[in-house]
């Protein structure tokens, strides 16, 4: 049922020229993950070059790193998480999507969340965070990440947490205590324990078909 509803939304998205990004895309990047089993919706920023070529979100190096972090925490990217972006088409030169572009694409984002009805939403990076939370000047992603909060999407409240974007972690390799990578690890373990407390770790590894343990090598 969820998959049928999402397919209808996807077809509308495929024909969308609701903002200027539609004119330069090769593919819309609608989602990744199993809508029938996902308890978490993860929202990233926007498609990059590899995503635009393949039509799938988080498939470049940053996506590989995200998958590794999820797996390390005991979360299956393919079963537990439904991944989307704030906009479905790639901004030229990988720039940050504008407020107008995000507003034009918001209907697809809200429809996806409404159909999935996740137990939690992960806001991955500052662009996703700012799409749902009004920050004051003292608030930065470093200060709000890792905290459970409530966000409202189309009138419905959801439990949510902000995490670092994996692109940021590609520039910060340290796994020392307090480092961005260590904080990412702690945040995802927190999400796993809170939202998926009974999920078996070995189950995740077999589901993802990943070679575990390469976190520090990406
Ligand atoms: S980014 Fe969203 S609103 Fe803009 S053309 Fe693509 S699908 Fe339509």
Walkthrough of the structure:
Helices cover 41% and strands 13% of the residues. It is an alpha/beta fold and 218 residues long. It has a single domain, classed as Uracil-DNA glycosylase-like domain (Uracil-DNA Glycosylase, subunit E, 3-Layer(aba) Sandwich). The protein has a 5-stranded mixed β-sheet. Helix 1 runs antiparallel to helix 4 and helix 3 packs across helix 8. The longest helix has 18 residues. The protein binds iron/sulfur cluster. Iron/sulfur cluster (SF4) binds next to helix 4.
Largest sheet descriptor? 5 strands, mixed
CATH superfamily: Uracil-DNA glycosylase-like domain
Q: What string, H for helix and E for strand, traces the elements in order?
A: HEHHEHEHHEEHHH
**Structural class assignment:** alpha/beta
Short overview:
By secondary structure, the protein is an alpha/beta fold. The chain has helices at residues 2-14, 49-54, 61-73, 99-116, 126-132, 141-144, 166-170, 180-195, 201-208; strands spanning 40-44, 81-85, 120-124, 148-153, 156-163. Helix content is 41%, strand content 13%.
How would the blueprint of this fold be written?
Elements: H1 2-14, E1 40-44, H2 49-54, H3 61-73, E2 81-85, H4 99-116, E3 120-124, H5 126-132, H6 141-144, E4 148-153, E5 156-163, H7 166-170, H8 180-195, H9 201-208
Parallel strand pairs: 1-2, 1-3, 3-5
Antiparallel strand pairs: 4-5
Bound molecules: iron/sulfur cluster.
Iron/sulfur cluster binds next to α4.
List the keywords.
single chain, 218 residues, alpha/beta, Uracil-DNA Glycosylase, subunit E, 41% helix, binds iron/sulfur cluster
